[in-house]
Amino acid sequence: MSVSNLHPCLTCGVCCQNYRVEFSVYELQSMGGTVPDAMTHEAGGNRFRMNGTQFHPVRCVALGPLPDIGPECVGCTIYEQRPRPCREFPFASYGCHDTRAKFGLPPLEEDDVQHWQEAA
Ligand code: SF4
Ligand code: SF4
Fold first, then answer.
1. What pLDDT does 120 receive?
2. Are 50 and 60 in contact (CB under 8 A)?
3. Residue 2: Cβ within 10 Å count
4. Which ligand has an atom closest to residue 97 CA?
5. From CA 94, how far away is CA 72, in angstroms rounded?
6. Relative to the alpha carbon of 13, which ligand is closest?
7. Could you give the CA distance from residue 52 to residue 26 in angstroms, rounded to a whole number?
């Protein structure tokens, strides 16, 4: 068994470069939620989006390097404050595998999936 020391998401981040991330206005900090207003824009009605996810190439403004964890590591710089669609996007789901394949990344190792899902 060979398991990565780092969670596979920390050397990936492609789901934050693939989807339009849209959520209710009530998730904004100014409305009592958690998402920093300055990283978002209005998407119509009572919906808001993460900046950078409204056009191609997609790259959420909150995706950034995590040098404290490792030199090549990337991740969500507002992880605890991220909006609901991000909280509900499951690691090792179809969408995860499909997005990795779209970006030319290798499939997740079964051992890694099992290990990190158990650790979650
Ligand atoms: S959930 Fe999947 S696509 Fe998203 S960062 Fe993690 S491994 Fe990559
Ligand atoms: S808010 Fe965070 S988790 Fe959501 S798309 Fe942006 S970087 Fe990714």
1. 78
2. yes
3. 7
4. 1
5. 25
6. 1
7. 20
Q: What is the CA radius of gyration of the chain?
A: 15
Domain residue ranges in the chain: 8-109
Closest ligand to C-alpha of residue 90 is: 1
9 lines ligand 1 (CB under 6 A): yes
Closest ligand 2 atom, residue 35 Cα:
1
Contact predicate 70/6, CB 8 Å: yes
Q: Do the Cβ atoms of 48 and 23 come closer than 8 Å?
A: yes
**Block residue for tokens 């119509």:** 44
> Which is nearest to 76 in space by CA: 93, 92, 89, 57?
89
- What's this model's pTM, rounded to 2 decimal places? 0.95
* Token reading at 67: 């040098």
Residues of the chain whose pLDDT is less than 50? Answer: none
Q: Is 76 in the pocket of ligand 2 (CB under 6 A)?
A: yes
Residue 13 CA to ligand 1 centre (angstroms): 6
- In short, whether 50's Cβ falls inside 6 Å of ligand 2 is yes
CA 23 to chain centre: 14
